[in-house]
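C-alpha cells as discussed.
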C-alpha cells in the first residue's frame, strides 16, 4: 500500500505518460544497496514510516498476516523486494502481481475514512519511504551517500516506481521536491497508529517459524528479548528525526552515539564476510551472473 489522503505534493504538474519500465542492471546505486545484508537493518524503519500513515496502517492491521505469520510475511516481502532490483524482466511481472494482490485491500481507517490500497497517493507513500531510510542507513551502517549518489538514488526510485506501477505524477519529481513532500507528510498525516506501536514494542510476542531447530527453540526465550530490544533501537534510530518526533519517540545524543558505535561494528564486520554472506541470495546470484561467474540456482518467484 502507498500514499496520501490529499494531493501527492507534485505541484499539480501536467500529467505525462509514464515511461516503459526498465529493469535494473549493474552500475546502479540500488544494485549495490538493495542486496547488501545491511539492508535488513533498514527495512523495519521503512515499514514503520509506511504504517504511520493511517490508511496504510489500517490496511496492514486489517489484511496483513504480520501477527500470525511474521517470518513468512517477512520472507515473502524480502524476496519480492529483491526481485524488483535483481529479477530483470521478471521484475516487471512482480510489479503487476503486487498490483493485482492489492486490488482487494480496502476498508476504513481509525478515523472512519475509507481507504483502498491502490489509491495513488497511498501506494506512492509506501514507495517513497525508502528514500530517507536508505540514506540514513547508508550513513550509519556503510558509508554516507554524497549529493550526486543521493540524486541518482532518487532517480532510480522513480524508475523502480515505473516497475511497480506508480505513476511519476504521483511522486515528487526531484529530491528537493521530495523533502518538501516528506515534511508535509510527517506534519499533516503521520501518527502513532496501532501497528506502529506494535512494531516498536520490544515485548511483542514473536514465535519462531515451524520447523525451527530444536536447540534454537530452547534458546529462543533467552534470545528473543535482547534481539527485540536491538531491533526496536535500530529501527528507531534509522527513522528520520522529524518522524521520530511526530511519533513521540525519544532519541537522545547518547542513543545516537550508541547507534554510531553499533554501525561502526557493522561497517567493519560485513566487508570481511564471504560474498555469499554479504549479499542476499537473489542479489548474490545476480551479481555473479552479471560478472560472468557461475551463480547458484535461486527461486525467483515469491512463494
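Sequence:
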Amino acid at each position: 500500500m502507498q500514499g496520501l489522503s490529499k494531493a501527492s505534493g507534485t505541484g499539480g504538474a501536467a500529467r505525462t505518460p509514464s515511461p516503459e519500465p526498465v529493469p535494473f542492471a549493474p552500475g546502479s546505486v540500488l544494485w549495490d544497496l538493495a542486496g547488501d545484508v545491511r539492508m535488513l537493518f533498514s527495512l523495519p524503519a521503512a515499514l514503520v514510516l509506511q504504517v504511520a500513515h493511517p490508511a496504510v496502517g489500517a490496511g496492514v492491521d486489517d489484511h496483513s498476516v504480520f501477527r500470525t505469520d511474521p517470518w513468512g510475511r517477512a520472507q515473502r516481502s524480502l524476496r519480492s523486494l529483491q526481485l524488483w532490483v535483481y529479477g530483470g524482466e521478471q521484475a516487471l511481472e512482480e510489479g503487476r502481481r503486487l498490483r493485482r494482490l492489492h486490488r482487494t485491500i480496502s476498508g476504513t481507517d481509525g478515523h472512519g475514512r475509507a481507504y483502498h490500497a491502490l489509491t495513488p497517493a497511498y501506494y506512492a507513500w509506501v514507495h517513497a519511504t525508502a528514500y530517507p531510510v536508505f540514506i540514513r542507513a547508508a550513513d550509519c551502517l556503510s558509508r554516507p551517500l554524497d549529493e550526486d549518489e543521493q540524486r541518482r538514488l532518487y532517480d532510480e526510485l522513480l524508475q523502480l516506481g515505473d516497475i511497480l506501477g506508480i505513476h511519476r505524477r504521483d511522486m515528487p519529481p526531484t529530491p528537493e521536491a521530495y523533502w518538501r513532500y516528506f515534511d508535509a507528510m510527517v506534519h499533516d498525516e503521520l501518527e502513532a497508529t496501532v501497528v506502529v506501536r506494535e512494531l516498536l514494542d520490544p515485548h511483542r510476542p514473536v514465535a519462531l517459524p515451524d520447523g525451527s531447530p530444536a536447540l534454537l527453540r530452547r534458546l529462543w526465550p533467552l534470545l528473543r528479548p535482547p534481539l527485540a530490544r536491538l531491533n526496536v533501537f535500530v529501527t528507531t534510530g534509522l527513522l528520520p528525526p522529524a518522524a521520530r518526533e511526530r511519533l513521540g519517540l525519544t532519541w537522545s545524543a547518547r542513543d545516537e552515539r550508541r547507534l554510531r558505535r553499533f554501525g561502526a561494528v557493522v561497517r567493519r564486520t560485513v566487508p570481511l564476510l564471504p560474498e555469499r554472506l554479504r549479499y542476499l541470495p537473489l542479489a548474490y546470484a545476480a551479481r555473479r551472473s552479471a560478472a560472468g561467474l557461475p551463480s547458484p540456482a535461486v527461486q525467483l518467484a515469491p512463494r
